[in-house]
Amino acid sequence: MFKKPVKIKTNTQSKATERKNFRETLLRKFPNFSESQLNELLPKKEPLNVLKVITHNDVIVNVYTVQKRPVIFEVEGKIFPTIFLLWKFPNLLYAFTTHQQVMSFITSGADLMLPGVVTPSLQTGLLKYGAISENDTVCINLTSNKAAVAVGVASQSSGAMSLQGSRGKCVNIYHFYGDSLCTLEGMSNPPLPNLGSPEWLQLKSFDENFPALGSPQKQASSSPMVSENDVITSEKNENEVSIRELEDVPGVATSKENDECSIEEMDNLLCYCFLGAIKYTKSLSLPVLTSNFFKLNMLPICPPNRNLDIKKTSYKKLKPFLKKMSDEGLVTVKEIKGGVEAITLINKEHPRIQEFYLDPKDRPKNDIDDKEDPQITDVVETYMITQNVLPIFEGHRKGDTIQASQIRQYVTKYVKDNNLQDETNNRLVRPRNVLATVCKTEHPVMWEEVIEKVCAAMKSCYKVKSGNEEILNKGKVSPITISVSVRSGNKKVTLIDNLELFGVRITEFAKECQHGVAASTSISRPPGKKYDQLLVQGNQVLFIYNLLTEKYKVPKKYVKGLENAPKKKK
């Protein structure tokens, strides 16, 4: 992103409120960041500047600097620490370790590939690729120095990396040592500090199957296959996956037990897991990515004494198997974007699904999923009793909340008890005492006007009940708004505001969007806003609207923005 020179559009010093929001954002984004460390990074008298930078490919980036040295940069609402911040606080992010020689490819614009990652051996008890999710912010360091040399996002989860057999992409790099971000505002490129090698490498606990780059043994056994886009530093066995990591993935073969199974038996096991998943998984929401369906729904169906290995079936891969199921009419599989397929429809009336039966004890356990699933969201508009109207609401205290329907009952009782109804016209009320103060007149007024004046003299608020939680928010109901914005490069993104007002856990909702539409997401706090905003790549208005109204049961009148959904092509 910063390989080529950038253009500084604006450079402003942040105000006190912006500085406070910035501190809160860092503490929320980086749980390992303590208050004392933040004070060390940003002393009270030290100004915080915000630079709006335009990259060579017209991406707008906000860069936060302290003493002209960048510490944080923000891309499309996602916060990243710079390598300078990580030099000061090296444990802020999970770090992938690589060889010094790989840096020449990274500085040329290449991403980090899995063959270029040095991993711990099994004896250390450490996970091979840590415990990260797709699109998590990570950094890269070297075997000789744990000081960060690059920052980016994980291209896939740790579990997916383990199943790749040390092939494929590991990190999409945004910023590296020596790029134009390092020399912003004319600052010189500082020398890389020597923080010592990573702790686990100091114990000589790296994988012995991963030799040092350029060793004679390596050169003799393989030919160079390094390109500008693929950093390949070793050739490990494609099927070599840590036994320790595979224990966390149910149903994946980790022993020689499957060697005794015939192809026909493995095909039957594959069909068994498939039919069990589509018939008995209660929490399955469509569309679902085929890869997620296999890992999260099919593998858990596999019997405890069996291990499903799709490579030992006649299909060899998941795609041809699902194509056959689609041809038979059990499911509908569509390509939602280049190379990414999803199951969009399940035909539960199909005879094969109808005939299939699983004993209740063998069915997928949905208890945990059901607990995590959002409950029906109920929104009740209420009013808070103030001192001005307190005499009207007998038996209540100042600050109590009351529904609009109950206000009419109390006002009617108060009018009748004090004989304030007009004797000649039942539609009129003669305000006296409290009502005269509220209505600001003693002349007869209509019943509806009295109710409106009483409501206006109270404070608006509303209760949101989601599952066992009840949230009281002051003010009028602010609906969930779904809008579409166009970023640089004519790329569309969907923005969702006010999710937290309705008890929606924004991080869980973001993951559902990632899995549902195969799009990246980010969470940020826009300037001047009280709540976080969710960004989803592409125009996903229809999916998000359906997710909120159908799964989260948010009333449709409190979800705005459906008109921004893409129009159907004629």
From TrEMBL:
PROSITE patterns: PUA (PS50890), SUI1 (PS50296). Gene3D superfamilies: 3.10.400.20, SUI1-like domain. Keywords: Cytoplasm. Pfam families: Pre-PUA, PUA_elF2D, SUI1, SWIB_eIF2D, WHD_eIF2D. The keyword Translocase does not apply. GO terms for molecular function: RNA binding; translation initiation factor activity. This is SUI1 domain-containing protein. InterPro entries: EIF2D, eIF2D_N, eIF2D_SUI1, Pre-PUA, PUA-like_sf, PUA_eIF2d-like, SUI1, SUI1_dom_sf. GO terms for biological process: formation of translation preinitiation complex. Residues 480-552 form the SUI1 domain.
